[in-house]
Design brief:
This protein is of the alpha+beta class. The protein has one domain: Glutaredoxin, CATH 3.40.30.10. Helix content is about 45%, strand content about 20%. It is built from four helices and four strands. Strand 3 and strand 4 form a beta hairpin. The chain is globular. The termini are close together. About 20% of the residues are buried.
């Protein structure tokens, strides 16, 4: 399964998620918000419009890592992504 991971190489949660997804043999496209302004701009647009981020925004959290599945589903839940791989 292909999954886009949006996060930062400076974020321990992102690094953990990438490690878990590698172990599950997922095909990963990583968008590193700390290294690409274009990816950051795209992420901010997604964060403002997708309801998956409502809880994160209410808590004042960034909402990373974020996962976009092949079917376009957006989630912040690593376990959901891992379950869909297996």
């Amino acid at each position: 399964m292909k999954v886009t991971v949006i996060g930062s190489h400076l974020c321990p949660d992102t690094l953990f998620a990438l490690n878990q997804l590698c172990q599950a043999r997922a095909e990963i496209q990583f968008k590193n918000l700390s290294a690409s302004l274009a990816d950051l701009k795209d992420y901010l647009a997604l964060r403002e419009t997708d309801p998956a981020f409502e809880g994160a925004k209410q808590k004042g959290a960034l909402g990373i890592p974020c996962f976009v599945l092949e079917d376009g589903c957006v989630t912040l839940e690593l376990e959901r992504v891992l379950d869909s791989i297996n």
